[in-house]
């Protein structure tokens, strides 16, 4: 055989050995794959790969859209820790039936997938996530093995006089809202999916960071699917640190909603990412702008809460006249002629503000857009436009404003243009405490 032919045969043999090794490592070999060693013929016992486990969760029905986004981050980082021991995936709870979602033409607003609001590809760069519909397809049904219904301890947080983390199975403090049917299945509200049910239900008292759930989830149960209900009871493991920001940066809005916001900015606010220096890289993991690199569009953005929030937080929320006065002063100070207003104010209240503030612009969805994007999508468009303004001022104690603070920090805006809030009427400078600044930690 010629030298060249011999070399080709050797290369082919090495290639086939390499392919076999890859198949072995990836688990493609059967459990009893025959192997050969010099002088020995035997069978290698390879353990079958464990099927991945599913973590589902839900939140107290009264919690709003932006608080639920925060709970997602806690659950995402719990799964991040679970991934160190086993293969877990986070099942995203469908959106719907939120108290503040009243304006959409689609009054039912249930079974809304996360992909309607967020970029799932981006979420999956942090941890594995799937929609509930995909969970049903993967497992073959809407059956959930266990539900852990979180509650506080009856003796309170500080029985010992100091904070201590603990999680224990306990009797239910209150009658469970999930009831057994004639088959012994636990049924209740599962995001509008009447076919969904739980096989085993238990109440769990918890005062802990989310990470403390790793041990009970991996050692106290072999259930393949576990749902943590009232997940807002669990706290962040390290608020404001790297893990927190990794989860938050992965929560990019859907491309369609960003496009709607960008088109509005370009058409009505003379704002583009190129001019505003807010171009984002496709992968959030490599997008790390220095503080102050973002310039923002030539407009002021204001988030003004009204309705029930204004009544319950009257000591921190200005009147319409007080808000208009502050808006005019900031526009003059920042030399801006347009102001974008995000608000839940009534149409009549908006008319009053427009009389007092010139250059006021709002995004007003058509009936078709309300049906298509729903209240959650409209809120995201508002937040996206506010996040790109030259200067932003929000409402004290509002999670809606807080999410905009985060978005602007991720884009690279200066804190002084971001962490601002409207003061209540006759509130002194000392009393009108500005929001805490939380810089991105990479």
UniProtKB/TrEMBL annotation:
Listed pathway(s): Protein modification; protein glycosylation
Protein's UniProt keywords contain Nucleus: no
Record's keyword terms, sorted: Carbohydrate metabolism, Disulfide bond, Endoplasmic reticulum, Fucose metabolism, Glycoprotein, Glycosyltransferase, Golgi apparatus, Signal, Transferase
Enzyme class, UniProt record, top EC level: transferase
Coiled-coil regions listed in the entry: none
Domain of life: Eukaryota
This protein's record includes keyword Membrane: no
GO biological process: fucose metabolic process
Catalyzed reactions: L-threonyl-[protein] + GDP-beta-L-fucose = 3-O-(alpha-L-fucosyl)-L-threonyl-[protein] + GDP + H(+); L-seryl-[protein] + GDP-beta-L-fucose = 3-O-(alpha-L-fucosyl)-L-seryl-[protein] + GDP + H(+)
CDD domains: O-FucT-2
Main location: endoplasmic reticulum
Family per similarity comment: Belongs to the glycosyltransferase 68 family.
Protein name as catalogued: GDP-fucose protein O-fucosyltransferase 2
């Amino acid at each position: 055989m010629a030298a060249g032919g011999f070399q080709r045969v050797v290369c082919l043999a090495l290639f086939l050995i390499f392919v076999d090794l890859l198949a072995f490592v990836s688990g493609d070999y059967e459990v009893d794959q025959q192997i050969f060693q010099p002088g020995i013929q035997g069978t290698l016992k390879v353990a079958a790969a464990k099927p991945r486990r599913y973590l589902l969760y839900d939140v107290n029905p009264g919690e709003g859209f932006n608080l639920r986004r925060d709970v997602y981050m806690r659950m995402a980082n719990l799964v991040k820790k679970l991934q160190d021991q086993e293969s877990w995936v986070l099942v995203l709870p469908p959106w719907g039936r939120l108290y503040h979602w009243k304006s959409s033409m689609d009054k039912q607003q249930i079974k809304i997938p996360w992909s309607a609001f967020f970029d799932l590809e981006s979420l999956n760069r942090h941890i594995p996530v799937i929609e509930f519909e995909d969970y049903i397809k993967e497992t073959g049904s809407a059956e959930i093995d266990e539900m852990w219904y979180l509650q506080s301890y009856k003796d309170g947080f500080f029985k010992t006089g100091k904070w201590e983390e603990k999680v224990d199975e306990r009797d239910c403090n209150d009658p469970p809202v999930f009831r057994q049917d004639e088959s012994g299945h636990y049924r209740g509200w599962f995001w509008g999916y009447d076919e969904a049910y739980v096989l085993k239900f238990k109440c769990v008292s918890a005062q802990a960071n989310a990470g403390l759930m790793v041990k009970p989830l991996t050692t106290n149960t072999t259930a393949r699917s576990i749902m943590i209900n009232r997940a807002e009871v669990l706290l962040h493991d390290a608020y404001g640190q790297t893990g927190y920001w990794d989860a938050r940066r992965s929560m990019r809005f859907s491309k369609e909603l960003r496009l709607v916001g960008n088109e509005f900015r370009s058409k009505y606010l003379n704002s583009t990412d190129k001019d505003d220096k807010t171009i984002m890289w496709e992968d959030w993991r490599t997008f790390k702008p220095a503080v102050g690199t973002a310039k923002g569009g030539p407009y002021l953005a204001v988030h003004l809460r009204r309705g029930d929030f204004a009544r319950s937080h009257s000591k921190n929320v200005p009147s319409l006249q007080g808000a208009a006065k502050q808006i005019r002063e900031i526009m003059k100070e920042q030399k801006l002629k347009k102001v974008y207003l995000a608000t839940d104010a009534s149409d009549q209240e908006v008319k009053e503000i427009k009389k007092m503030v010139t250059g006021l612009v709002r995004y007003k969805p058509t009936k078709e857009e309300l049906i298509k994007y729903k209240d959650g999508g409209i809120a995201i468009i508002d937040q996206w436009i506010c996040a790109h303004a030259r200067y932003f001022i929000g409402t004290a104690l509002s999670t809606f404003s807080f999410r905009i603070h985060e978005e602007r920090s991720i884009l690279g805006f200066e804190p002084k243009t971001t962490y601002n809030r409207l003061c209540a009427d006759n509130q002194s400078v000392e009393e009108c405490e500005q929001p805490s600044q939380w810089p991105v930690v990479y």
